[in-house]
Amino acid sequence: MIKFSSKAKLLFSWIILIVAIASSLFIASKPSGSPVGLNQKVAQLSSQFRCPTCIGLNAEQSNASTARAIRHQIKIDLEHGQSPAQIKSFLLAHYGPMILMKPPTHGLSAIVWILPFVVVIGAIALITVAFRRWKTQSNPDHVPTLEEIGIVEKALGTSSFVETTLEQNSSSMESKI
């Protein structure tokens, strides 16, 4: 009989646990295998198309006559064995690209997808340039002159610093004379 150390037994139990969890996750992630019913396919396809007469609703959500007609056409086409791509081509030819709930990401419609990013990047660039200009124009070593201090004190209604400084300067000038 082979004797295993406690570390080997612990390692073996962890390996068994990991294999059991991985296999159960693998089995659970597999599709059930039941075929999608015709009504589910119709609902799935019609949710990809916009209702031509409604605002903001897809053909699955809307109860308008045009949405019902689209759902009916999809059902008939699926019963006749047409693929979802063929049905999409037919509806695009009949109603145009605006029938799609998700606009195409190529051609002129790509502007809808690209423009927001361009605007955000442009705004960030403009703000960066503005802050850099503002930073280079400001001078942190600037010492305000008496005239500038006087303007500020006059605006604030105080005049102690400038008057005191002027009095000191005038008295020192008089004493030198």
Overview features:
177 residues; mainly alpha; Helicase, Ruva Protein, domain 3; 3 domains; 66% helix
- CATH-assigned homologous superfamily of the largest domain: Cytochrome C biogenesis protein
Structural class: mainly alpha
Radius of gyration: 39 Å
Low-confidence stretches: none
Give a topology summary.
Blueprint: H1 6-29, H2 38-46, H3 65-79, H4 84-95, H5 110-137, H6 146-156, H7 160-176
Helix pairs in contact: 2-3, 6-7
Quick synopsis:
With 177 residues, the protein is mainly alpha-helical.
Give an overview of the whole structure.
With 177 residues, this protein is an all-alpha fold. The protein is flat. The protein folds into three domains: 1-30; 38-102, Cytochrome C biogenesis protein (Helicase, Ruva Protein, domain 3, Orthogonal Bundle), CATH 1.10.8.640; 108-137. The mean pLDDT is 82. The longest helix has 28 residues, at 110-137. It has helices at residues 6-29, 38-46, 65-79, 84-95, 110-137, 146-156, 160-176. Helix 6 crosses helix 7.
